[in-house]
Specification:
The chain is mostly helical. The chain has one helix at 10-88. It is rod-shaped, with a radius of gyration of 42 Å. The relative contact order is 0.04.
Length: 98
């Protein structure tokens, strides 16, 4: 072997730089994947909450519509009863007895 005067050969320095770069990239990738999993879980929870809120809103709308329909049915029943009373009533006498 040749004398290196206490210095590392150039190829060994390059190898160490490549290894250090590889370790950094792998660490960055692991951090990215970990954060991605955390974010994905948060999104899943938020989506589940939004779906539950949507279902609750639809149920509330359904109940409100049912109440409006019931109130309309009652108003129609009152109107029909009033019309029946008017139609079934004897007409007022005009002039005198016939």
């Amino acid at each position: 072997m040749s004398e290196t005067n206490g210095q590392k050969p150039e190829w060994l320095e390059r190898l160490e730089r490549v290894e250090a770069s590889h370790v950094k990239l792998m660490t960055d990738h692991e951090l990215f994947v970990r954060q991605y999993d955390i974010d994905r879980e948060k999104d899943r929870i938020e989506q589940k909450e939004r779906a539950a809120q949507y279902d609750a809103d639809r149920e509330r709308d359904r109940i409100e519509q049912k109440d409006r329909d019931r109130a309309l049915d009652e108003r129609i029943a009152v109107l029909v009863s009033a019309m029946g009373a008017v139609i079934g009533a004897k007409p007022p006498a005009e002039g005198g007895a016939q």
